[in-house]
Amino acid sequence: MEFLQGQRLETTVAVAVAVVAVAAGAAYLFVRSRKPKGCLDPDNFREFKLVQKRQLSHNVARFKFVLPTPTSALGLPIGQHISCRGQDAAGEEVIKPYTPTTLDSDLGHFELVIKMYPQGRMSHHFREMKVGDYLSVKGPKGRFKYQPGQVKAFGMIAGGSGITPMFQVTRAILENPEDNTKVHLIYANVTYDDILLKEELDSMAKTYPGRFKIYYVLNQPPETWEGGVGFVSKEMIQAHCPGPAADIQVNFDCLITEDYSPELGIGSHQLCLFKAESQHGAVSPFQVLRCGPPPMNKAMAAHLDDLGYTKEMQFQF
Question: Does position 135 have pLDDT exceeding 70, yes or no?
């Protein structure tokens, strides 16, 4: 009898331990799977403190803003942007959209890489910002939301500071081990020093050689230069981007996002997101993301038409 009671006691303890272990495991998985609540408000501006300002060149700086807690996420869907509010040199309010270079996986902070133009109204605000100052931010903004696997490949054409949304989407794709989407990026600038995020872009190309290809184009290249020269041409697009497919529709959304610079038109950037959707409900083979100044976008639209991206394949919001 004592032997049986001992067995029953051991069985009860074992079951209790198993239940506790399962409950603890479930709780752990729940905590891990639960996404941190976003810090943005789409209707109201919120203040975020600048904790680091690092000058990358004479007119480019990386701004790091802290979130409420070390485990907070900004809450910005991939492919969307935020609205930043500041004051220009005359003290007048100015609001401009920007795309962070960080993702929601970067907890506790978000970063903006800003090119500050001499006559730029919001550029003035960022140029005057000091560590400890606060930036008013509202969002998320934008119609584009990326879903892993929605296309087989992206073709991207970026000009100047238009690289930031491309960088954000590319990072999200490459850092997701379950996303097999390939990215082909053409990035145009005036001079070598104008290239933003080059170290990060080159690192991604080296780390993911089978999934990410980048082709740089300069209007005024240095003496030793292996990339493209001049403006982005049809031939460059044909050589460095996937070709169009017959069964997709291409939708694009344009948004003026920076102060226009007449030199090459690459100072401001106009965000054009081409959302490809299969007419048969299948995964689309190709999608184009364009981000550059208005003159560049007009030229790229003409190139895409000539290369077979028909009007029926393009829809502008």
Answer: yes
